[in-house]
Design a protein that fits this description.
Order of helices and strands: EHEHEHEEHHEHEHEHHHHHEEH
Number of strands: 10
Distance between the termini: 30 Å
Organism: Rousettus aegyptiacus
Strand content: 5-15%
CATH architecture: 3-Layer(aba) Sandwich
CATH superfamily: NAD(P)-binding Rossmann-like Domain
Transmembrane segments: 232-254
EC number: 1.1.1.210, 1.1.1.270, 1.1.1.62
Enzyme class: oxidoreductase
Structural class: alpha/beta
CATH class: Alpha Beta
Helix content: 25-40%
CATH topology: Rossmann fold
Number of helices: 13
Strand order of the largest sheet: 3-2-1-4-7-8-9-10
Membrane topology: Single-pass membrane protein
Shape: globular
Bound molecules: NADPH dihydro-nicotinamide-adenine-dinucleotide phosphate, the ligand CC(C)CCC[C@@H](C)[C@H]1CC[C@H]2C3=C(CC[C@]12C)[C@@]1(C)CCC(=O)C[C@@H]1CC3
Mean pLDDT: 85
Largest sheet: 8 strands, mixed
Number of domains: 1
């Protein structure tokens, strides 16, 4: 039987690149594109079919910011499919981003430059709005709509013969300090995007605790900074073009500039008959394969070449190697696809997996422990359940639930 993979936000950016890569890997998949705009979904379907005519590609209309639409789409999916093998929770927004140029310029000459350019910490605010259902739009789109979708699709995902997967497109911007359990929709702050991505990380951890025993596994992927309509909302395309030579140089310091959706999707595609195996460990700076000896000292995941580059300060503290953290683990670049290939049981539910670019632009995957605790994840999950009950009751009251 064909495997069925559902991707939200599949019509553009990293979602679309992911679909292309999945079909290159396995044209026997049934790919279902979950998009809010039917015309864009059809255009994406046509483009994917043009490059892979034998593929089976369908579309379902869903606006993940609108609970009614999510419930309707889930109902349609339950009628169409008996099982889903993998769901990519990828659709996302960053509305009206505003770049703090002053903070960028001063940050460029500070010790936190690498961290700043990887995470955008202190650089961006957004202007969120309230949806017709009284939800904060960023939270409703990036988190809650996907939470509802997963709950509605549980019968197709759990208790099958083989494990099913959820893969969240999170971000290096996910920030604990921007998230509050008391204000998980981020009504009062100006960084709803970072808050929503942190909420996503918490949710993935909680879902693993709840659903692993029923054969559903959740993982968090970070594609890195890519040029998509989201980043063109921060700076116009021509400015990105002008900045490109600087970014190419910066890539020797900052491993998060994956730049293209194709590179960003490195981490996303999942599972492989070949199984997980032991990943080859690569140097985070240069991407070269570490020797057995270097690999053996995992705690100091940095090669002598990098130690030389940074004058011997190999602990990842100095400017040049702040991206070489001890938690990093990597695999074959050009191994095409990663998360989808791993046996879900072999992944660490408390780590996120990052598409990472070397100074020379090749991509590979690294793992990073998430900055969270399971108790907070559990409490957040319960808050979401309460909101779920409230939203469904409201919809029933208005006669809108299907
Ligand atoms: N670009 C980057 O540097 C990074 C992006 N990400 C994440 O990657 C994901 C994809 O973003 P990216 O590819 O960059 O940007 P795009 O804007 O190209 O893609 C976003 C996708 O989400 C869809 N979408 C937005 N809102 C909704 C909604 N309410 N209902 C259904 N679909 C919706 C869009 O559909 P439509 O075409 O109809 O608008 C589009 O298909 C996001 O979750 C983003 O946070 C993470 C790290 C870095
Ligand atoms: C390269 C520099 C001289 C100029 C670029 C400055 C900023 C526009 C970028 C620096 C860090 C980037 C970043 C993102 C967007 C663009 C930057 C702010 C993201 C917020 C994009 C979406 C994400 O999910 C995370 C990214 C973190 C880094």
């Amino acid at each position: 039987m064909r495997k069925v993979v559902l991707v939200t936000g599949a019509n553009s950016g990293v979602g679309h690149a992911l679909c292309q890569r999945l079909l290159q890997e396995d044209d026997g998949l049934h790919l279902c594109l979950a998009c809010r705009n039917p015309d864009r979904a059809e255009a994406a379907r046509a483009a994917l079919l043009a490059s892979c005519p034998s593929a089976q590609i369908t579309a379902v209309q869903v606006d993940v910011s609108d609970p009614r639409s999510v419930l309707r789409a889930a109902g349609e999916l339950r009628r169409r499919f008996r099982r889903l093998d993998c769901v990519y929770l990828n659709a996302g927004i960053m509305p009206q981003p505003q770049l703090d140029v002053g903070a960028l310029l001063s940050g460029l000459f500070s010790r936190r430059v690498v961290h700043m350019l990887c995470t955008a910490e202190g650089l961006l605010i957004q202007h969120d709005r309230v949806t017709a259902d009284g939800l904060q739009e960023v939270f409703a789109t990036n988190v809650f709509g996907h939470f509802l979708l997963v709950r509605e699709l549980e019968p197709l995902l759990c208790d099958g013969d083989s494990p099913a997967r959820l893969i969240w497109t999170s971000s290096r911007s996910a920030q604990k300090a921007k998230f509050s359990l008391q204000d998980f929709q981020h009504r009062s702050g100006q960084e709803p995007y970072s808050s929503s991505k942190y909420a996503m990380d918490l949710l993935s951890v909680a879902l693993n605790r709840k659903l692993n025993q029923r054969g559903l596994y959740s993982s968090v992927a970070c594609p890195g900074t890519m040029l998509t309509s989201m980043t063109y909302g921060i700076l116009p395309a021509f400015v990105w073009t002008l900045l490109m030579p600087i970014i190419w140089l910066l890539r020797f310091l900052v491993n998060g500039f994956t730049l293209t959706p194709h590179n960003g999707a490195e981490v996303l595609p999942a599972e492989d008959a070949r199984g997980a195996g032991q990943p080859a460990v690569r140097c985070p700076c240069w991407g070269h394969r570490l020797t057995e000896e270097e690999n053996a000292s995992r705690l100091l995941l940095i090669s002598p070449q990098c130690v030389r580059q940074t004058g011997g300060s190999a602990k990842g503290q100095s400017l040049g190697v702040a991206h070489c953290t001890s938690t990093m683990q990597s695999t074959e670049p050009g191994g095409q696809v990663w998360l989808f290939r791993q046996r879900p049981e072999s992944l660490d539910p408390l780590s996120k997996y990052l598409s990472t670019a070397t100074g020379f632009g090749s991509t590979y995957v690294t793992a990073q422990k998430m900055d969270l605790d399971e108790d907070t994840a559990e409490r957040f999950y319960h808050s979401l359940l309460e909101l779920d009950t409230h939203v469904r009751a409201t919809l029933q009251g208005t006669g809108a639930q299907s």
